[in-house]
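Look over this today:
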Amino acid sequence: MMDEVSPKAPPAPTVETEVEARAEAPQPRMSDHCTNDTPLDASEVANGPYFLALKEIVKLADVDVYVSKPMDAVSGTPRLVLMLTGGTGVMAKTNQIQADCFAQEGYFVVMPDLEAEDVHLGDSAPNAAAVTAHTENADLLETIKFKAAEGIKGFIIDMWLARHTPENTMPIIETVLKAVKETYADKAYDSSMGILAVGYCFGAKYVLRLAATDEIAAGAIAHGLLISKEDIAGVKKPVTLACVENDMFFPDEVRDGGKKQLQDNNIDHELKVYPGVPHGFAVYGSYSEEHIKTAQKQAFDQFLEFLSKH
């Protein structure tokens, strides 16, 4: 009679197997456009809005805040725009130029650093280049396939998102808004006209959250990230949305369901879908493809026209 063979226990997971398993089927949470700067052409930057606004980085309530205002503004007259960025953060040149674009149109713009932990130590989302460099320098990971490196990047981004929740992020925004009012109201901007808010990628969710309160008069968002049906259902202020066609980061069912919710609640809104553009297209950048550059300008004009009415 043959000896009975005990079944072998499954092998313990290793770093390689866990990373490869994650790389096989993770759900996308942030795109490279959320964590990497859009391209910039040096000559375009030299002649663009970056040099047509007065700007500085200041500390407000221990938070780094990029402040940009029109060069010809009369003290106390511009309207305030709160700009909330994607994962590249307040130090990214593209985000600073985008803020300057609004300043060039006559707005007083404040852009707080949302990417830090513990009111604010500086914790911008990991970009692809940084993750690649990290994996190339790690002996253990040199033998793992490319897809494993992608899995690691996804894991690091997920960890970043786990630290940057609404419970951590909204208090930063509220603290900065309070400090802005105390520091600048009626000196640098007209506080009687109401605050406008603009959000890109990660920051879009929080514009919708503000639009569910009386903190702002109107909001504008582009290619939102991690937006839920509840975020849209709570909106009670006018909003405009610039969306990407077939955007896995802002699924059609959430977008279309949100539009219906805004209609049912009689909220003044508009929603435009831009085909053939990448997630992140609306942030200032020097794309070579003409249709992306055109869509970028159209989205900016969409925001300007809508906000000017509110």
